Every structure is written in C-alpha cells, then in structure tokens.
Amino acid sequence: MRTPMILAGGALAAGLALPAVPAAAAAPTPSPGATPVTRAGTSFLTATGIAAGQPVRMSASTGDHLYWSFPASAGQRHEISATVSLPKARTGASTWTVEVFDGLRRRQSCTAGAQTPTVDASAGSVSLGCTLRQVRSWAEPWSADPLPGTYYVRLSVTELPEPDLGLPVDVDLLVSADGEGSRDDGELKAPLVPNTKAGAVLTGEPAAAPAEEEDAGFGDWLPDLGSRWIWSTVGGVLAAVAGVVGFALTRRPRRP
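RESULT FIELD:
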C-alpha cells in the first residue's frame, strides 16, 4: 500500500509536471461607478433598461414576473447572474427560472448556468445564471441565432406552494458582456428592436360609394343564353316532341 506513495513522491521529486486543475470561472462584477437599478418592469413593453455591468438590487414579491432589457452588439457574449434572497417563513420547495429573449421575442438558449434551479424550504437564497451564445452580425431568417438588438431578461418563479405567493424577496441581478467585434462575414441591416409605436385607430369603416344604375335596354329582361332556365325550357320542349313522335310510331292502326 505504501509503494504508490513512494513512487508519487519520487515523481514529484524528479520534477514531473502534473496536469493543472482548471480554475473556476470568475463571477461577473459590476462596472466601477455604475448606478444600481432598483426597479423592474412587469412585461416586455415595460421592461426596465439596464446596461452591461450595471447591477440590479431591488425588492419584490414571490410570484412577480420581473423584466429588464439590455442592448447587445455583434461579437459580444453575455452572462446573466441573479441571486434571490428568500424569506424564512416558507412552506415548501420552489423552482425559479431566468429566461432571455431577443428583439423578436424569441427565447434564447443558455450554454451554461443554472437556469432553472429548485431549492427546498430551508434554503435562504437561490442562484441563477445563463450564458448566451455569441451575438452574430447576421444569420439566416429561419435560424434562431442571436443577432444585434435589444434583449430581454425575465426572472420568475415557476413552481411553489400556494401559501408562499406574495412573500417578500430581494433580487440581485447583473448582466455582463465579453468580447467585441464579430467573426462573421456580413452585416445586419437593422438591429432587432421591437416596434413600440402604436398605429392609428379607425373609428369606422369608410362607406362605399353607391353603384350607378344603368338604363335597362330592350333585351335586358331576357335571360342569358347560358342561363339554366333557357336549357330547362329547351329540354322540356324536346322531351314533349319526343313523346308525341314515339306515341305516333308505336300506336296501332285502327281497323274499320
């Protein structure tokens, strides 16, 4: 049992290099001097705008859907990290989720991070994360690749006991951006920004102009040659003639 230990010690003494253990990725940090955001929207239209590196610190209620929006440029890779401090008076486990949508409201997939963690009733907080794919400068219309424009973050709870709805929670969220420039050949014509301008409301449909009545001619009262009434009449006359001719041919002559 001691032989492997002696060999390992000899290998270290001989200066053999052992494979290095990769270090854990550093957590994103807020930008120096960034002003914290203390509110959130309740829908895509009312999402609170934030910038990369700008922290979010706010209080909310369990069951709220919280929305934020941030701009993304080609070549950037964004990482969303969130921590929700949970109250102690809870009756059961809960499942939280963080989702990211692009300017066309298409849900973007995460390449890393705990996007939908579940914590038990004794946990004091829950940590969520989502690392997006690199934003491309262009993509095919049928693909769901991330493109430059406005992106939306939604934080919500998906499963929890009904008595825990409405309990107060504290939310810390941060969006970080890494990388500049794009390796793709091409350029997007316009960023994917939703159209928030409302259209004009029509009070009523415009009345159609009355059709002008044309003077009826002499032959306008006659039916068209292709009308079914013409063909029905002709068919009836031909049937009557055929009946008379057939009766005349089949009738026996009377004897005097």
